[in-house]
Structures are given as structure tokens and as C-alpha cells.
């Protein structure tokens, strides 16, 4: 066990030390504010404060983990042996910056609580983040810092053994619209045909008519193909279905339709199924509660996972609603418009509510790749970017999560390229 001395044990200190030391390094951690107990401890020990005490690893702190609420912080990024870091401290510190304050700043999404420019969807943009502006968005910096911190501990306490992690992958398929044309009702079919004609899209007119007359399979009906791929290559995959009411923002077929319920049940036989909340569920607790119940009624089991990969992630409200409804995992932590790690880590972490200064039980699963971001890149850049992110995450033996949609594997997208990327991500020859 690593014993940590600090003059004041705050919820922020407890939270971030447990993530860096326990979640990433696999090292149990204890805390004390009693100097006598700390000095008498014969095992690994670390002091976190303004000056060192005895024969320990010493991390000089900044004030962030001793504060409450949010302040407009000045953050200057420096280089630490080729790795970006911030919150620099004095030379007496075993590490030249406050690794725990910097990690907390990224994990808590501190910058998203501060004033920022939103995109047209009302979302926090990748371009507004420190990581994007300083060029480390595609690096799991917290995990890299943790590995270097592990070396500092090993140099001081050479007899300490650390458990090894293993590089893993997870693919999410977000199903916003289960079908492109099928089972959408006569009014929507007619309006869709008129819009396709007005916009002069003869291919879509033809496909719509062929699907309606059962001469062609619906383009978004890729589930058999994807599940066959999943079974053949044993790819860890989750499907997140939307069961929202029809609205301007949510355009799936009605959740009461037997075709949709049958589809969800059949997919649930091969992969875990979770919820993709609709626009209003993201904003209103009662709607999220209803959508969770709908999906549970369909699959006849508790729904534990969710993803919001399109609408604004309202912090802390979105996550607090999930906690209250007993969701266990969330896969929304990423940017749909950019590849990279929104919270600076590829290790799942508990959500910390800055408003109430508490650690919640919701386990946030950060994704690094969202297929929506491919549209911002040149075709010959996509595979290179994916490979580089995979390399960065595999170097720290982390977890690489990617998000696709059912449309990505249809004829309306580059399905061959996307299946190829799935193979690359999952090391399939």
C-alpha cells in the first residue's frame, strides 16, 4: 500500500489519487494527516504538500485539490521528457509538476464548467479544450504521467511490484435510426419521397421504393453482417439503441413497433445492449427514466450502459441523472468531431461532481475514436490517425474504445473502410 501524507484530506485528493494510483497503477492507497503515523510507516510513502518530510517521494502541490468550486485558472503547458504537462512546481518535487492536480483538472472536465464557446448544437467543442489547443488531445497523458510516476516510485522503493495491465478494445455501435426507410409509416414515406424528389436525389427515391416493395433490404439493416463479423473475430461490441418518441431531433421508428423490438431482442442475444438517450432524455430526468424503462421492458433485463454521442453532454446534470437511475457505465466521454481523449485518459474513471464535490458511482468509459470525426479528415489520413491513437493507448496498456453507427456499415457510407478499421483496432489479420 502507498501511504499518502497531506495536511488536509479532501474529496478531490482522495478521488484523483485513487484513479492514478489504484485504477491505473493497481496500487492500493491510504491517507493520513498525522506526521507521526507517516514517519513510522515502513512501506511506500508519498507526501503531498509544500515541503517534504522524511525519506519519501515528495510531490509539491498547487492549490487546486484543496479548493472547492471553480476558478478561472491560468494553465501553462510545459514539457516533461517529451510529454506535455501543466501546473509546474519547484525543483524539490520528485516530479516537476503537480501530477494529481493536472489529472484532476482533466478528469473532472473542469474547463467545461468555465465560460466557453459552444458549437451550433450547444456542445463543448474539442477546439475549446486545453488538450486540443496544446496538441495532446490524441495522447492518454494521464496514463503516460502515471507510468512515469510508477518509475519514480520504483526507483525509491525498488522492492515494490506493480501489476501489469493489458491493452483491450471495445466497439460501440450507436443505433439512432434502426432503419433508413423501413417501417416509418405512410406519412413519413410520402414526405420523404417528396423531399428526395425536390432535392433531386433519384438514387434515394429508387431505394425507398425498392425497400417499400420489399425488392431491396433497408440500407441501415446491417445487423446480421455486423454480428457475423463480431462472432467470427470475437470483437467486444455493444449496441446502443434509441427508443425515443419521434421529434424534430429523434427520428427512429416507434418503440412500440414489433419490428424494432424484435431487432433489439435479436441483437441482445449476441451483444450487450444499452441505451442511447434522445434529445429530451438528455435534458429531462423523467424522459430518461421512461426511455430506460422502455428498453428494459424490451430486453427483459436491467439496462446498465448508455451513450450520448450526439447531443450536448450537460455536466453535471446528464451524469447525475444517470447515477439516480442506477446506470453503471457511460460511454459519452469523447468528441464526435475530433479523434482523441476528451478527459486525457484511456482508463475508465468515476465521475466527480464539481458542484457537490463528491465521487459518484458512475464509471465513465472514455472513447478515443468516433466515426463522425472521419468526415473531418482526408481519406488517406484516417487509417494513419487510428493507428497512431492505437499505438499511444497500447503503449500504456490502456483501453481503446471506438464509436460507430449502424449507418457506417451501410451502402451510404464507406462500409469496407470501416470494417477494415475495426480489424485494425482489434488486431485482426
Strands, helices and their partners?
Blueprint: E1 2-5, H1 11-24, E2 29-32, H2 35-40, E3 45-49, E4 57-60, E5 77-80, E6 83-86, H3 99-107, H4 110-113, H5 130-133, H6 141-156, E7 168-175, H7 186-198, H8 202-212, H9 223-233, E8 237-241, H10 258-268, E9 272-275, H11 279-283, H12 285-299, E10 305-306, H13 317-324, E11 329-330, E12 349-353, E13 358-364, E14 369-370, H14 379-395, E15 399-405, H15 415-425
Parallel strand pairs: 1-2, 1-3, 3-4, 7-8, 7-15, 8-9, 10-11, 11-13, 14-15
Antiparallel strand pairs: 5-6, 12-13
Helix pairs in contact: 1-3, 7-8
First-residue to last-residue Cα separation: 41 Å
Q: Note poorly predicted spans.
A: none
Number of strands: 15
Largest sheet: 5 strands, parallel
Helix % is 25-40%
Mean pLDDT: 93
Name the beta content range: 15-25%
Radius of gyration: 24 Å
Strand order of the largest sheet: 9-8-7-15-14
Helix and strand pattern: EHEHEEEEHHHHEHHHEHEHHEHEEEEHEH
Structural class computed from helices and strand pairing = alpha/beta
Spatial shape: elongated
Number of helices: 15
Description:
- The chain has helices at about 10-25, 35-40, 100-105, 110-115, 130-135, 140-155, 185-200, 200-210, 225-235, 260-270, 280-285, 285-300, 315-325, 380-395, 415-425; strands at about 1-5, 30, 45-50, 55-60, 75-80, 85, 170-175, 235-240, 270-275, 305, 330, 350-355, 360-365, 370, 400-405.
- The chain is an alpha/beta fold and about 425 residues long.
- The strands form 4 sheets. Strands 9-8-7-15-14 form a 5-stranded parallel β-sheet. The chain has a 4-stranded parallel β-sheet with strand order 2-1-3-4.
- This is Polysaccharide deacetylase family protein.
- InterPro entries: DUF7033.
